[in-house]
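Example 5.3 — DUF3775 domain-containing protein
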Amino acid sequence: MKRSVEREWELSLGPDTVRLLAEKARTISAAVNDDYDDGKEHEIEFADETDLHNHDGLAEEEEEDLTEEEFRELIADLNVDEAAELLAIAWIGRGDYEAEEWAEAVAEARQRVNSGLANYLLGMPMLSDWLEEGLAAIGA
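Solution (predicted structure tokens):
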């Protein structure tokens, strides 16, 4: 685990918001992983021919879609400073930057923040872990 550093700056993005995004990312990731468990992606099993109209799976799928939609909306609502900090936190958690390089990470993130940020973040396989590790590293 990385040690936290003494901060000489304030976050624009609240740590609770980062934790909320990490939790949503974890839920989204778990939904994808469950779907592809044991190589049985999208395989349908019918236990009883009389129960063909049970739609519990559809309700569950809709809930997962809402989580991703909520994640995307939260990202879209961030201003440039908040989005850059979120990306920098993810990079620090992933090990691309050390916590001591916060200003450099945020400056680089600010240049890369665009409308594709949600896709970029959702493409990170361990986003939730990296956000939490990044927060811990910067002492937030």
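Remark. Confidence is low (pLDDT under 50) at residues 33-55, 58-64.
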